[in-house]
User: What shape does this take?
Amino acid sequence: MIDGNSVLAIAIFAGFGFLLLGAIGLVLKAFGTHWAWGLAALIMPPFAWIAYAIKHWTDARGMVGAALTGLGILLVPTISGALSGQAPVAYAQEVLEAFLYPDTEVGHMTSRDAEKRRLAKMKKSLQEQYQALDKNDDVAMARFHRAVEAYRQRKRVYEQKKP
Assistant: This one.
């Protein structure tokens, strides 16, 4: 069965795939034009890529399109993570872990065990954030309270699921 995490994990893989295809293709196109362009594309990305794409648009547009498609696809899990109150990188990591390591037999961590571990990490992180928090900074306090509420909601969901 395909769930939301599976879709997001596929989006992350597809986005990075298109981005990598575009980057490698752009470097190869640059080398095909002149060795100096190729060397610049290897040494000074993305500045040389942008310069090459502007100067040789007809050659580069397909690879630029692939890279931009990859970036566009990567926006889906990034926005989804931001809306869930988590840092996008941490959210992407959790999505990929859930996709790559679903409930399995002995020898592997179940998703419930992984969720328990994530909750413990979140709690520790929140405790560290609270220690470093400026209690007079209203914006930081509001952000911290949103993170605490996201943790509590996630813990409630975890506790409601039967083992």
